[in-house]
Design a protein that fits this description.
Blueprint: H1 14-38, H2 42-50, H3 57-65, H4 72-75, H5 82-92, H6 94-99, H7 103-119, H8 126-135
Helix pairs in contact: 2-7
């Protein structure tokens, strides 16, 4: 008498499918977050404009898709919240997309952004004055 071993194919379990979906979702979220964060860099916007990407209809659809980051559940992951402002401009302002081709314009946007970072908590420059008085 011979015994036969029957090979059984194991169907994917719900947990396995969920794990794959979770991994795929995390990968997509990470990619979207990284791309959205890169929009905070005016020099990257210049690169996109010069390469012609900013005028692509599929790219504009992708920008609309990224709006999900405005929800409190996702916005908390943004390290550079000004990326949402640039996202608005890219979605709604063709003039901005065209202006991003100009290195002078991009340099001015960058200078304003850096200037904002330097003073956003202290727009009147009062912190520096108080610090000097406290030391005297």
């Amino acid at each position: 008498m011979t015994t036969h071993t029957v090979s059984q194919e194991v169907a994917p379990t719900t947990n396995t499918i969920n794990d794959h979906l979770r991994t795929a979702n995390q990968t997509t979220f990470s990619r979207d977050l990284e791309f959205l964060s890169s929009l905070a860099n005016p020099y990257y916007l210049n690169h996109l404009a010069l390469s012609g990407v900013l005028s692509s209809p599929s790219f504009l659809r992708y920008l609309r898709y990224l709006d999900y980051f405005r929800h409190p559940r996702y916005v908390r992951y943004l390290q550079y919240p000004q990326a949402l402002h640039f996202l608005d401009l890219l979605q709604r302002e063709e003039e901005f997309r065209i202006a991003c081709r100009d290195a002078g314009f991009v340099g001015e946007v960058m200078a304003r952004q850096v200037g904002h970072w330097a003073t956003w908590r202290d727009p009147e420059g009062q912190t520096g004055e108080q610090g000097e008085e406290g030391q005297a």
